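Handout, section B. The chain below has 555 residues.
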Amino acid sequence: MIPRTTVFVNRFSRTNPGERAAPGRRAGGVSGLAPAAADVPGAGGPASRGPGARRTIRAVRVIFVAAECEPWAKTGGLGDVVDALARSLARVPGALDEPVEVFLPRYRSVPVPRDRPVETLAVRVPDPRAAGGSGEIVIRSFEAAGYRLRLVDHPPAFDRDGLYGNARGDFADNAWRFGLLTRAALETRRAEGRPLDVVALHDWHACAGVLQRDLVYGPDPLIGPAAMTLTIHNLAYHGWTPRARVAQIGLGADPPAGDGWGIDLLREGILRAEMVNTVSPTYAREVLGPEMGMGLESQLRSRGARFLGILNGLDQELWDPATDALIAAPFDAADHSGKAACRADLCARVGFEAADPAPILGVIGRLDPQKGFDLVAGAAPALAAGGARIIALGSGDAGLVAGMRAAAAAFPGRIAMVERFDRDLARRIYAGADIFLMPSRFEPCGQGQMIAMRYGTPPVGRRTGGLADTIVDLHEDPAGGTGFLFDEATPDALRFACERAIGVLGDRDRRRWDGLVRRAMAVDWAWERASAPAYAAMFRRAMAARRGDLGAPAR
């Protein structure tokens, strides 16, 4: 069984002159630039061959620039996707000429491994805060699982508590920190003299890279021809840089970008990258309108068919109840009897009575209004009064935490609020709960619902973004259902959806529930099946666009 919807192509605005939409399924001056280490010609594109002829398409050379990469640095789904996508591209035949290189800051929390060879390279990088305008940055490189990780080691920028900020808020110099990350990635490839076809930028943290290419490296024979793609994992975060801090980016105090107020780095990335995508087809459609566009809907619409929605995959080796050593008993789609032991183990860990047959609803994530935890807090008392039990795992917004605490205090033994980030307990919730909740107000893709299905725990999700693309409502499609959907972002709508799920779970005739669980567990979320090939195709389109083969850029 495969997800119904994998790719969305924006056809809202007219396509660029000379550009055809990719097939899809519904469901400035040069400054501070040293001579390049090698005079590398621009990237070549696919060779045209007649019918039946052997393909001679040269594989693509790609680097990722990202602020997170699991397991090294992670606060959310960004890190999971960067890691899994980099690994899966290596498994797509003919997609890459070499393993992806992932450039990641060496934060204080990121160790240099001692169990494998680590190469060290000192690179001189233009730096607006360094004496003389440039400084030395150390790049520490080693093999990860299917890709090469390149840590950008510069203690003044990255040796701090927190990735983006601390208890007092975001770091005021984030524009400098992440501008240095992208500049170090580009300068490393220049110093090595290694050809480069595509720079894949992830979220606003990497968007300075496209400004640097356009405004600094245009004439450079290696960086200038490189195509850039931008993957937006969450449109809510823009990397807004007020005019007083623009010089931190390393393009001077008044670069030809942004406006009189400053630079929205995500906006610049959207307008300048050859291809832009977000991480599910439905979210890509949603953000073209003002309700979900976060002020950037017109820029996204202007990109025409160069804006895509590609559904995230899931690492099915990492998330496999048949081999997961952290859960109480293994199980699979053919025999999920081990789930009973996982349920009993989960109950013991959170103080629930294991022999109680009352349904267990699990919810995991950041306590944030986006994730709908206020809906959970609002629905929890009625659900508990009706006999359900709820386990919530996460931390975040103080008001939402207080709401969940109050619900847990009112229903001891029926509502458990675990206030921490706990990977091991998260796995046990996926495996041991009966139903999994994903009541997000908006959800670019979401991974929790995919993991829950993989672990035989049908999800209840709001019909938005990637949740709409990955959950098939049982009552709308009795033969193909994999979970339950609701529409209104209200506690009552969530409660009614949970009650529908509980009703099927409690039916004496187990065939409907057992069929639901089997179908959910059978969905093929593998990255290399559809998602990674879609990224590989996008990289090739970006290369063609950079050469001008797709017409003038939409700006």
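Note. The two ends are 40 Å apart (CA to CA). Compare this with the example in section A.
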